[in-house]
UniProtKB/TrEMBL annotation:
This is DUF4268 domain-containing protein. It comes from Hymenobacter coccineus. Residues 10-144 form the DUF4268 domain. InterPro entries: DUF4268.
Amino acid sequence: MYSKAEATQLRQAFWTTLGQYMAPVLSAEGMPANWINYKTGLKNVYFRMHADTQRATIGIELTMPDAGIRALFFEQFEELKTLLHETLGETWTWEPAAHDANGQPLARIYAALAPANLFSRDDWPALISFFKPRLIALDAFWSDAQYAFEALK
């Protein structure tokens, strides 16, 4: 078991390492990207990565406080499901109603890798190999799909 400080240090080291692997990769539009804190340009629409002692996930999270607006955005993503899955090269899990670690409602579309342990440096290559191509594919998807959300801004 790790102390809180050790866990924080390992977590920071992993995300820094992933950021370094991603730094030379340009976005689908040929621009440098902040891959770890990806900006979608839409309020309450996030590309999120998470890893802990059990698994890793990457996905799209919709965190609008209003359930109706969140549902509209989720429906718009459903319209783009074929494009998303073709761009990703795999099928992701779709959850129209979920909750985050703090109990806040959200909708999400994600892929998971298990078992995976962020705190085991031996797992880092597998975690990076899981996150990197999916993050690049999400960016490629978003470079086309973002325009479908203009009317919902």
